[in-house]
Every structure is written in C-alpha cells, then in structure tokens.
Amino acid sequence: MSSRGGKQKKGNVTSEQEEEEQPLQAVLVADSFNRRFFPISKDQPRALLPLGNVAMIDYTLEFLTSTGVQETFVFCCWMSNKIKDHLLKSKWCRPTSPNVVHIITSDLYRSLGDVLRDVDAKNLVRNDFILVYGDVVSNIDVSQALQEHRHRRKVDKNISVMTMVFKESSPGHKSRCEEDDVIVAMDSKSKRVLHYQKTQGLKKLQFPMNIFQHGSDEFEIRHDLLDCHISICSPQVAELFTDNFDYQTRNDFVRGILVNEEILGNQIHLYVTQDGYGARVSNLQMYDSVSSDMVRRWVYPLTPEANFTDQQGQGCTHSRHNVYRGAEVSLGHGSQMEENVLIGRDTSIGANCHISNSVIGNNCTIGDNVVLDRAHMWNNVHISSNVEIHQSVVCDGAVVKEAVRLNKQCYFSMLPVSQVVIGPNLSLPEGTVVSMHHPEEEEEDDDDEFLSDDQEVGHSKDKTRQKAFNPAEVGPEGKGYIWKASMNDTEDEELAQCLWGLVLNPDPESDSESEASEESQDRSRSVSPEIDDVNAFQLEVLGTLQRGLEENIVCDNLVLEINSLKYAYNITLKEVMQILTRVVLEYPFQQQGTQLTTLQYTGSLLPLLKTWSPVFKNYIKRAQDHLDCLSAVEELFLEQDTHQTAMVKVLMKMYQLEILEEEAILKWFSTGATNDKSRQLRKNQGLQKFIQWLKEAEDESSEEGE
Amino acid sequence: MELQAVLMAAGGGSRMMDLTYNTRKPLLPVGNKPLIWYPINLLERVGFEEVIVITTKEVQKMISTDPKMKLDVKMKLDIVCIQEDAHMGTADALRHIQQKIKTDILVVSCDLITDAALHEVVDLFRAHNATLSMLMSKAHEFTETVPGQKGKKKNGDFVGVDGTGKRLLFMANEADLDKGLVIRKSNMRKHPRMHIKTGLVDAHLYCLKKSVVDFLADNRSVSSIRGELVPYIVRKQFSKSMTSPNVNDEADQKLKKKDGNANVEIKILSRDEALLQLTRERSCWNDHRGDMSEAYHGGRLRCYVHIMDEGMCYRVNMLAAYIEANRLAPKLFDEPAVHPSAAISVRCLIGADSIIGASCQISDKASIKRSMIGASTTVREKVKVTNSIIMHGVTIEEGCNIQGSVICSNTVIGRGADIKYCLVGSAQRIEPEGEHTTAYYCLTLPSHTQVPLTSTLSGNSRVAKIQ
Question: pTM of the predicted model, to two decimals?
Fold first, then answer.
C-alpha cells in the first residue's frame, strides 16, 4: 500500500497540463471469459469471429482509434497466438498506425478482474483509460464523455472513478440483449449512477431508499439503456480491482462501488448517447442483430464497403438496397439479392437463388435454387442446390448438401480441416447446433467451474473420432455431432438457451398473474397479524436456507447468518435447533405443497439433509442437543401423522450423517415418550426395527471394542 | 358544460390549530380576503360560472352574514353543507354530492393559492382522455421565520412521471417506502424512462372523470381523494387483471370479496370508449416510441400531472404556508393596498408592501412594513409592525413593537409590549410593557382569559433558528 500511496502522490504532483498531453490509453480485453459462443469458440477466439466478413476485434480497434486512443493494450488469454497473428498482420501493427497496439498474453486470466489487476501490477495506465471488450462494435464518439469524465474528476477531486457509456434504446429493441438488460437509477442533474442492476429474470425492481437521500430531488430510473460495454475508467479502477480481489467482472465492480460508496467515496457516472451505435456481441442473438445493423449501415462510417481494415481484396461495392458485392462475385441467372446482402470475394452463386438479409463470406459456393434469409455464412462454405437456410450461422468450411432445410437459429461450428457436412435431404429443427466436436468432450471439461469460453480441449480427440456420426441427425453423408440433442441436464439446457439469447418478450399472461397475486398479497399483508419473534425467526431461517440452496452458499456462511439471526431475534440455542430442525423437515412441504406422498417427501428431504448436515452438526453438540433435536423431529411427525413412516428414514439418514448419535436415539426412544401419541409413534414397525438394528450395532461395536 | 367545479371547503385546518381555533380555515384572512376567495377567484378567472362548494354550516353562515367575510365574486355558489362532526373525507364529500355531478369534475381545495395556468391541467385531461389529471408544483422554501413552529420536516412524496414529465406513473409517500421503492419490471418496460421527483407539493386540484365519482359511490371504503383514491387510480393504470378476459375464477372471487368492486374498471370507462377506441385504431398517433405496441399500451386508465416550474402555488395548511401566502398573496390581485375606509394618520409610515384592511385606525408615528393589518384594527401611536400578520379587530396600544408575528383576531396588545416571532391566539390580552424578545409560543385559550405568554418550546432551539 505504501508504494501505491507514493504513486498517487506523484500523480497529483504532475500538473494538469502534463495530464492533457499524455496519450489516451485503452485496455481491450480480447477474451469473453464465458462460453456463449461454444462450440464455435473452441476453434476460434471470439474476438476473431467474422462479423460482416471482418474480425470483431478490428471493429473495436477502429472504434478506439477513431476516438483518439493512441495506445491500446490488448489482453488475450484463450488462443492468444491466433489473436496475436491476426493483429500483427493487420494495419494496427504497421508503423504508420496512430494507435500503438501492445499485445499482452497470459493463460492465467480468468476474468476481467484478473486483467485489470495485471494492468495495475504492470503499472500500464497513467491516466484515464477506455475499457472495452474485443467484441464491441461501436461508432460512438466518446470524446464528449471523456471530457465530462475529466471535468468531474477535476471538480470533485477524483471521486468519479468510472463513466459508463450507454446507448438509448427502448425495451423491445432488437439490439437489446436480455442478458445485459439493466435498470439504472441515476441522479438527473449530476448523471451519477445510484443503482445498477441486471434485470434478467426479475419481476419487481427494488430500489433501496438510501439512494434517494443524497440531497438531490430529481432522479431517473431508466430501463431504456443499452450497455455498450465501453467504460471510461480512472487509473484508480485498476487499483480498486487489486484491492478487492473478489471483483471478477465489471458488474461486480460497479455494484461494489455503489454499495461501498459511503465508505470509499467513489462514484460512478454514466453517459448516454442518443445517436451513436454501440453494442457488444455477447451472444448469438446479438451477433445476428449487430451484423444486420452493420449491413444496414447503422454503424457508419464502419460499413462493409469502407474496408477500414485496409486489407487487399477486402473491398466491395455498395449498391442500392444495401447490397454489397466483393471482387469476383459471380451470380447465376435469375438469382435475386433482395436487400441487405453482403457477399465476400470469389463467391459464386448459382441460378434462381433468393437471398435477403444475409452475409456470405469469401470463397463460398452456393448452388441453384437456394433460399437464404438472415443467414450468416463465413468463409469457404459450400451450399448445394435446393437448400433453404433461415436465421442461421454457417461457420467456416461447412458443407450443406442438397435439399437441406435449416430452420431458425441453427448454427454450425466446424474445424477448419475436417468440416461438418450436412445432408442431403434433411431438415434441422430450430436451435440445432452441429459441431465437429463431440459434446462429451465438453462435458469432460465441465469440471472446472471458472472455465473460460475457450479452454484447451485437445486431449480426447482420438476417442471422438471413433464415435460414429449419426446419419439420422446430420444426414446420410453428414459429418458432425448434434449438440443440443445430447443436452439433458439442466445446466446444458441453460447453455443452449443462452446461445441465442433469451426471448425478449415474456408472455403477458405471467404478467397479469403476478398482478393478481400481488393484489392478494397486498390484502394478506394488510390483515396479517404481527408475527412474534420466534415465528419471524423461523421465516428468516427458511429464507436463509432457501437462498443458500439457490445460490449455493457454503454451510459455514449459513451458520453465520443463522447465528446473527439468533441474536437479532433473541432466540435461545435450544430454540434455534428446534426451529432449524422443523424448517428443514418441513422444507419439502414448503416447496412442493403439502400433498406430497411419503415417498416423494423422503426423496426430496434426504438430499437436503445431506447438504445441510454441517449446519446441524454446528448446533447439535451436547447430549441434550441431540435429545432436543429428536424431540423436534418427533413433534413434527406427530403433526404430520400421514408421514410417520418417513420418520425412520429421516432418523436413519441423520444417524448416517453423524448428526445424531445412537446413544441419543436410544435414550430418546426409551425415555422420551410422555403421552399416548408419542407412545403410539414408537410402536411404528419401521422404527422398532431401526432401534433394534441400532442396538445390535451397538452391541457389535462394543464387542469389537472389547 | 364540460367540467363541473367542486370546491372542498369543509376542512378544519387541523395542521394549524392555533390559527383555526376561532376562525375556520376557509375564512382565515389572507391579504385581507378569506382564504376561500382565492380558489373561487381562480375558477372565475378561467371562466367557470358555477361552483359547488362543500362546507360546513358555520362557514356558510359566516360567508352570508359577516361583512368581513363577504366574497366579492360574480360566480354562482352552490353551497352544500355537511356535518362538521361526521369526519367526512374529501371522497366522502364527493359521494355526498354524487347526485349533482353530471359531467367530469374539477376538484379544488379551499386552501389553494396559485397563479397556475389551469388550462394546462385540463388540457392534459382532454388530450389523453385521462381518468385523472392533477396539478403539482415545486415546493417553495419558506423565506420567513415561522413563529413557534417545530422544525420538523415532513416526509416527502415520491412522484414518478414518464419521459415527457406528464404521465403520472408512480406515487408514494416516503413513509410507506420502508422496504425501498419497488417498481414492477413490466411497468418499466412500458415506460422505460421514469423521472422520480421529490420535493413537490400536491396542489390538491384534480380533474376527475365522472365515472370516478360513480366508482366512489360504489366503494364506500374510500374516504379521501388524496390519501386513497388518487394512489388507487395511479396504481390501477397498470393492472390488467380485471380487463383481461381470461382471469381465472380464483382471482375473480378474490376481487369480488374486496367489497364487490369487480367491475370497477368497466365503470371507469368513459361512455364513448368504443368510438375513441376506433379513433385510436385508425390513427397513427402513439403516445410512446420504442416498442411497437398500441397507444397507451392498451391501458384504459391514465393519470397525468402538470408540474409547475415557476409561478406560485401554495397550500395554506400550515402556519409557514399561511405566513408565506400572506406575504405573496397581495401580488395576485390589483386592489389598493390601503382600504379606502381605513382612517390613516398622515404622519405614519406605511410600506408599499403592506395591506391595511377596512375601517382600520392607524395613528401618528406608527410604522408598518411588510405586514397585513386586518379590518377594524386599531393601531395606536408609535407602534412598529414589521413582517407581521394582524388579523381583524386587534387593538395595539402605544409604543408596541411587533416583529415577525401573527396576531389573531380581537386581541389586545398592551402598551409598550415588545413581541418578536410570536403567535398570539385570538382574543388574548397581552400585558403592557411585556418584553417578549425571545421566541415564545402563545397557546390559544378560550376567549377573554388573561394569560401571560406560555412557553411551550425550549427557548434554545427557537433562538437558534432565528439566528
């Protein structure tokens, strides 16, 4: 820390004039740290995927250069060599480039946080810098935002650490990405961000009151903002990432800053552009919309015919209806290019084709009578006659045989060498993914949770080769594996959903339902009597456990939370344990209703017991604790008399998990009965057997001990 | 007739009991006119010819008999009396006069003093075929020191309007938001840019559809317009559950349970809804941009608000507002500051910003600055009155010095008394030569009791505030 203090001091000493003279720097993160483009990104890093026949990273670099960035640090992790090669060949590394590009590679980056910590460690940035991802396509002039940012920093003594750039776009706009759907509460006058939340999956948006108590009397809550993933950062940002090693993403950072605002005194501001274009290609849905916006010239001056990458042979002509043709394109008789079509060089198209809203790469061949709509074809694709493709991505080197029909949202990923072949005579349903990689390869890989997009796979190739292609899936001459079909467990389903992003408009019915339920809630809230502490505590414990399950919280932390609740509600340890037992045992009823059969009940309860056994063990230590716990169990099963048969299983499980000791169970069984009902309970056959078994086990163990 | 005006003048002024102990709120003198004159004048200025005044018997009697309270208006006043002790809320009062309501209504509260352009509110109501449109204004900082007021800050309202600043989307009091401000995402989707404003005062001026009055008649549980009805309508703007045909039976029953207003929505529809619907379908006009859904997103209830940026808008419901209104009200009308019937000595000093009521007597060497002197008040020699409000029939003996105070009716201030920042209740008798330089708060007691000033507030806090 001392070294940092010194550094900052030095920074302050430098005069303003010097500050202005320093070149504008940018940090470009050429890795996505997620697997949205899997399996395409297995062979090609996301930053190099072509969009409008130009690699995405080129758009980002062009954007940075045009806003006046003079020094860019490109951080690569996955397939860094490919990115490096690409950049070294590009115009950015020519000596005439106004933007000096430094490429920094490391396999150790696991998140944006790692990159920025490295920025801090290497002491790369000296002044405000622009932070972007390698898949941002934008023509926003951030100089205005930059000016505002600098002004704020000058006036407020470095309080503002970040200015996020947003584009105004109403909900429902197709370039809005559901994943990045954010709601921002801001101060109207100072443009300060007060609250920042991703809204995906939320029905209600909650804003804490303290954000409105900053003296200003006008706020805005905005849901019409599209996050461009362009941020202007102060040098402190890198330091803050170092100080808070748990920050992984920018989202973590923003939320952390906002929550700790009063402690650290850092603020985040935003800049909203109305007419610029800026979007991050964060999933396939965004890929589709950004690509079509590109062809429709929304990103002017970054248009296909501009050839801003300055590569030979990349030029194309622009004619009306936004039809772009590269060099040496041949078009068969009777073929129509309706509108918004981009065709790369050396591509030949057969007769009577019908092409609209599509991008076709270089060196492609397309047969006769082909219909393409919203298709994205990369380089060296071969399409036979009578093929119909709708809203699909066909990657490098794919071969689509005769009479294949690709419906919405298919996409193929291929190895450049051994290509995927589809067909003939096949119709692929919506959302199909075909790849030369076998899905199982990926599953084997799944162990690592922090896996990036693009982890090294490579090992099980021989094994994959041996697996046969399924002709029913990819056609008689097909080569490749269907991806989605094999994805049965929920995690993978989620992944598949994410490939194309989520559907934008949730059905309105759910909306009105929530309305009705809210109404009833309102009413019940008004009539519900005040709950006493014990009940409140019970509810809180239930909530804690629920959350623990949903968010996979470690049991130690659950114990901590329950302990703090214990103090908050002034509950004795004995009560804590009884309530805990009760909550856990009732949990299946809570979640699935009371009409469960005994079998279902035990089925869902036993895994829960296993998950939470550390929590129990924490509270059940002394002999008396065991008895208390048992009596709580007994009490519950006396209430739920239809499920008494489940009691044995519960006790058994608790015994196996070493939550309860056998002496305690035996003692409870022999002495605990105080009234008829509990005596009745003890006559349960299963229980009798269990006790018998316990006794025998004890005898045995004691014999062994002797 | 497009709109019927309804004036709510039955409130007792419970937030400034010291003033309203003897004089009902509608009759409090502001710029030497009863408070109720201001809203009536407002209505008259924009061309209303008739107004339904809901008030109490006492006020009615005073208006018709007491010359001091005479309302100098040409408008036809249709006075409806309600019982004072019935604890009727404003919505109850509307329900009471339901028979008289034939069209949409404009409800005004009697304590509103404003120079707002009323047509702005009504135009919003017309243009959007709104269910409710209302007037709000930026809260004013009260410039004058308030005698004997606790410095307690009221909880503010949170008002949410859309990007145009006209459509009212959200309304809640800070006190009710202990769990934070909660907005449904579907609402944000419809109105993606919501301005949340605080520090606004509600002028209590509402345009309401006639169907709302009918709705009130069916829902006896709603008793206050501001407290219950308006928040209810604002909330209901986004509720679809009742209009959508596929509401399941369960929900239906729930709604019926709720004092049987299952068909509220239908009643709130206007008569010409079918025609309007057709117009909207045929028109390319839309109230929003961004998504492709129909105008107003198919919602049938709409609330609008006009927020005044400048101009004055006061609700005289607190002492501070009363004092401020007195300072500013004279600017609203161009009558001579000194009433012709007042007898004023030549050798006294009267500031241009003061008002002298009818039949006043002001003696030699008196000095009156930035003050209001009510009717039939006697001001003796060498009296200095600064920044004060003197109501009717007050007698101020020689050599008094009154500063920043409110003196209620029929009080006698003894010779040489020095009163600063005090509130003196009606019919009090202040001892001569008393020096009340620190801030004292004077309790209102039954008439003709002689009491010294009673301190109810710790001197320190007041002193601190004055300084």
Answer: 0.71
